[in-house]
Known about the structure:
It is a single chain. A hairpin with a 5-residue loop joins strand 2 and strand 3. The chain has a single domain, classed as Alpha-Beta Plaits (2-Layer Sandwich). The protein is of the alpha+beta class. A 4-stranded antiparallel sheet has the order 2-3-1-4. It is globular and about 30 Å long. 37% of the residues lie in helices and 35% in strands. It has 3 helices and 4 strands.
Amino acid sequence: MQLILEFAAPDYVVWKASFDAQFESIDNAGLSTLQIWRAADEPKTLVLFEVHNRKNAEGWLARERAFAGAARATFVETV
């Protein structure tokens, strides 16, 4: 299972530094970062995670949203 998160990131450099500082929290949530994309025409960043523990990932996501982190989250499966 994977998780795709969409972030508003007007300043990618600032966003990336903040994201990198959360490595331990992300890891403890049972997530591994697979890819990061920046939108070409708007201030948006997408992150693809591998989900190792959905319950922990959902808890982390709830905390992120409380701090106005991820704007949109979608759990997906390869079919």
